[in-house]
Amino acid sequence: MARNISFTIRYWKQNGPKDKGHFDTHEMKNIPDDTSFLEMLDILNEELIEEGKEPFVFDHDCREGICGMCSLYINGTPHGKTATGATTCQLYMRRFNDGDIITVEPWRSAAFPVIKDCMVDRSAFDKIIQAGGYTSVRTGQPQDANAILIPKQDADEAMDCATCIGCGACVAACKNGSAMLFISSKVSQLALLPQGKPEAARRVKAMVARMDELGFGNCTNTRACEAVCPKNETIANIARMNREFLKAKAKD
Amino acid sequence: MWLTNSSIGRKVVMSVTGLALILFLTFHACMNVVALFSAEAYNAICAFLGANWYAVVATAALAALVALHFIFAIILTLQNRKARGGSNYAVSTKVVAGKVEWASKNMFVLGIIVCLGLLLHLYNFWYNMMFAELAGVEGPLSPTDGYAFIVQTFSCPVYAGLYIVWLVALWFHLSHGMWSAFQTLGASGKTWLPRVKAISIVWSTVVILMFIVVVVYFALGFGCECSAACGDGCAQAAACGSAC
């Protein structure tokens, strides 16, 4: 049964990385519970514009849970509370109740400075990928598809790691602002496959070094990251990356 | 040096020193339990680990392990606070609450409690035993009569209480620290994480229980009833008990 709910939204306003920031509130009336969270924010912005106020800035793009752009900290949880893990764009108003106060905050981490309101600069993740999160490929004729045999188990495991969309929820939830879950997923997706093996040692060293440079924290295995990951990445990836890193350092 | 200037390297130092200290605690607990059965046997261990060169070297190595573990903990904690940035969330995480162990978020505070307990412990035992023997300090009790020191210390309810608080804090520290060390060293994975976790929790629980049993046994005064083996220790304990 579709129902309409009315609630109060507290949203974070901040003019830039140096600004102190504050919460603004707005009363939302009769929102159908089939509305997605981002559609609800679109309605909020239309109402704000009509009232002559500045609209609320937030990140979004594909709105189907695969791009990793949406990034809101909703009622104390990155991407809001869902049953099995989903991004903010896949969160629906049916998860909320009439009369709720919904608090929306940006990712808070030194490595993710606020650009405006709830839009944060996550280019640090791109820099980590640039440091080694790829395979160098020789151009020319494509190889025969079955030339490299990969066990099904490895292929599945690599695929699970590759589903990480780099949204940054792990960093946002971590009390240490550590990016280990993200980087370990990216290291794992390549380390598990034969195509990624030749560069595995160089890759893990370069990516970890870049992570340290960019000011991410150290992992203390609190597992907050895996509890909030919309793609259900596990800290088994972190163990694998540690193993890869120690192997690479032992070879030096 | 990657052990100091990379994030994973610093964590490896924490893991290796932590695991070495857990190994030490395990030996220590086994030795303590001997005191439940025989005062003579316990004092034989105390004499063996007294002011002998190998025991002194081992003590210095242990002190170095504790110092490394402590220094790296401070460095890591400061870096983590900086990485977290100045601003805190207005609403704290709800999903996380059930899935994140309390100990894992409070390792530094627990570590400080463990260190304070360690200082008290060194004052109660090491200062009166190995140090007294090395420095030639004359006390009321012989520095190799470890059994008498146990009786004396734990007959005082304040000390017994403090030791139990200390050991409980240590249990919380180990309940996260031990499996976390294996995870950092990469000895974990989808299949092995639950196993490593179970082994770690059972291991640390058994070790801490061995310590606590000894404290409780002597706090309740069972140690004094075996008067034949106890000898001088009991007179001292009685004296301490009344003073306390």
Describe the structure.
The complex is a heterodimer of chains A (252) and B (244). Chain A has 2 domains: 4-105, Ubiquitin-like (UB roll) (Roll), CATH 3.10.20.30; 122-251, Fumarate Reductase Iron-sulfur Protein, Chain B, domain 2, CATH 1.10.1060.10. Chain A is elongated. A 5-stranded mixed beta sheet of chain A has the order 2-1-5-3-4. Chain A has a two-stranded antiparallel ribbon with strand order 6-7. In chain A, helix 5 (180-191) packs across helix 8. Chain A is α+β, with helices and mostly antiparallel strands and 252 residues long. Helices cover 35% and strands 14% of the residues of chain A. With 244 residues, chain B is an all-alpha fold. Chain B has one domain: Up-down Bundle (3 helical TM bundles of succinate and fumarate reductases). In chain B, 82% of the residues lie in helices and 0% in strands. In chain B, helix 2 packs parallel to helix 10 (192-219) and helix 7 crosses helix 8 (146-154). Chain B is globular and about 55 Å long. Chains A and B meet through helix 6, helix 7 and helix 8 of A and helix 2, helix 4, helix 5 and helix 9 of B.
Helix proportion range of chain A: 25-40%
The total number of structural domains of chain B is 1
The CATH topology of chain B is 3 helical TM bundles of succinate and fumarate reductases
Helix content range of the residues of chain B, please? over 70%
- What is the fold-level CATH name, i.e. the topology of the largest domain in chain A? Fumarate Reductase Iron-sulfur Protein, Chain B, domain 2
**Beta-strand residue percentage of chain B:** under 5%
**Tally of strands of chain B:** 0
Number of strands of chain A: 7
> Could you describe the largest sheet of chain B, including whether it forms a barrel?
none
Number of helices of chain A: 8
Query: Which stretches of chain A of 5+ consecutive residues score pLDDT under 50?
Result: none
Shape of chain B: globular
Task: State the end-to-end CA separation of chain B.
Answer: 52 Å
Q: Please indicate the count of domains of chain A.
A: 2
